[in-house]
Each structure stands twice: as structure tokens, then as C-alpha cells.
Specification:
This protein is α/β, with parallel strands linked by helices. Helix content is about 45%, strand content about 20%. The longest helix is centred in the middle third of the chain and has 15 residues.
Length: about 260
């Protein structure tokens, strides 16, 4: 009996945990049931303040977050989470104005799903975002530091250096002059695509397919890509208004400067 309990505990700890925050009880029930059926642990919240509290207590692997909630809206929750965490966030929105939906992405959300949606669609988005944002961080010895880890691996094939920027593809970390730059998982995946193919231009639709795993015929506002590019530039470029690393390929999309 004890062995079975230990096994169940180990399996529970191995499963990825998702926080679903929505003020509509029916949506919470449906998503909780469906996500548990496909193997996730699920915790829920019915308003923004509870979402922040549950997030801090349970440390989920991904957050599904409604925009319009009482006490604190989804934007406020996103701001609170992004103060301390890069955990992936998918926002749910019924807002008709695209610019309002993009606001969540500008605050640090990784993707969005428009209401009404099918649970199957959300399951696909959850799976795609988690696949792209799984941490590959390597534990650094107690005597080490982030800067020494970056410097120590400079000759590794996993380290890409361009100017003052070092990109560690094994740890999924980025450094400027040995100071770590915090990126969300999707931001790193986007950067990784462009850096590994430096000098090659990608259209927004191609980026959505490669990074967000959207099928070629999926309809979504391609400004999702523009927002993430803008966020990356704000973190990596000396002058984001005059980028030297992540370039605009006019008439096509974006590319990373050619690395020799």
C-alpha cells in the first residue's frame, strides 16, 4: 500500500502542472477535466487575486489565464507573474479588438486563444508552448555563478557569441558581458531559430509554424511575431529602434545578422 502511494506521489510530481484562471466556473470545469485526461495536474482560480496566490503557492509549469476577471484582470496577473517568473502564459480573450489582445503579449504572455474555443485547440496550444519552453538549465556548482558558467563554456559548440551577446543553446540562456538576460521560453525559441539560421530571412507565417507550431493554414494575427521580436530587441539590442542583431527583412519578415 505504501509502495503504491509513493508511486502515485512520484507520478504526480513528474506530471506538468497547469494553473487555469477564469471567472466562469463552466470553463474551469471543462478545462480541468480535459487537461487532467491528457495527463496534466491542474489547479484553478476564479479571479485575478486568487490566480496570483495560487501561482505563488503551487509553482505551475504553465498558466492559462482569462483576460476579463474580477479583482485583478489578466493583464495585472501577467504583470505580477512576470516580476519573478518566466513561466509560459497562454491568455484567453473574447475581446474583439486585436490591439487589446496583443496587450497581453506585450506584457509577457507567450500565446493567446480567442473565446469561444474548443478544448482540443487549447490542449494543442498548451502542448506546443510547453514543448518549446521546457527548461534545459544545467545546475551550476555552489561555488560557481551565472557569469562563470557562461564564460567557462565559451569554447563549447553550444555557445554562440556575437559582439557582447553570448547565447547558450544547451542551457537556453543568454548573456550580455556575462550578465544573464531573462528571456521567456518562447522568446528564446524564437531567438534560437533566427540565430541557428543567421542571415536567412523568415516570414511571420514561417516563424509561427517553426516556433509556435501553428499549421500553415491556421488563422492568427501575425503581430504575435512582431510583439515577440519587439520584446527580444528591447532586451538584446543596444538601441532597439535601430537594431543591429535582429533585422527586418523588408517584404519578407525577420532575420538575425549573419554570424561568420
Amino acid at each position: 500500500m505504501a509502495d503504491n502511494e509513493e508511486l502515485e506521489t512520484a507520478e504526480s510530481e513528474a506530471r506538468q502542472k497547469i494553473l487555469v484562471a477564469d471567472d466562469e466556473a463552466s470553463i474551469r470545469r471543462i478545462l480541468e477535466t480535459r487537461l487532467k485526461m491528457v495527463g496534466y495536474d491542474v489547479v484553478t482560480a476564479e479571479d485575478g487575486e486568487e490566480a496570483v496566490e495560487v501561482f505563488n503557492k503551487t509553482n505551475p509549469d504553465l498558466v492559462v489565464l482569462d483576460v476579463m476577471m474580477p479583482k485583478m484582470d489578466g493583464y495585472g496577473v501577467t504583470r505580477e507573474i512576470r516580476r519573478t517568473s518566466d513561466v509560459p502564459i497562454i491568455i484567453l480573450t473574447a475581446l474583439g479588438d486585436v490591439s487589446e489582445r496583443i496587450t497581453g503579449l506585450e506584457l509577457g504572455a507567450d500565446d493567446y486563444v480567442i473565446k469561444p474555443f474548443s478544448p482540443k485547440e487549447l490542449e494543442a496550444r498548451v502542448k506546443a508552448v510547453l514543448r518549446r519552453t521546457i527548461s534545459k538549465d544545467v545546475i551550476i556548482p555552489a561555488s560557481g555563478s551565472a557569469s562563470s558558467a557562461a564564460a567557462g563554456g565559451k569554447n563549447s559548440k553550444n555557445i554562440i557569441t556575437t559582439g557582447a551577446i553570448k547565447i547558450d543553446t544547451a542551457r537556453r540562456q543568454v548573456f550580455r558581458k556575462n550578465e544573464r538576460i531573462r528571456l521567456t521560453g518562447m522568446e528564446f525559441s524564437l531567438l534560437e531559430l533566427l540565430v541557428n539560421n543567421s542571415g536567412q530571412a523568415y516570414s511571420r507565417n514561417e516563424i509561427l509554424q517553426h516556433v509556435w507550431s501553428y499549421p500553415a493554414d491556421h488563422r492568427i494575427d501575425t503581430r504575435v511575431v512582431d510583439v515577440h521580436i519587439s520584446r527580444l530587441r528591447s532586451k538584446l539590442e543596444a538601441d532597439p529602434t535601430n537594431p543591429e542583431l535582429i533585422l527586418t527583412a523588408r517584404g519578407i519578415g525577420y532575420m538575425f545578422q549573419r554570424i561568420n
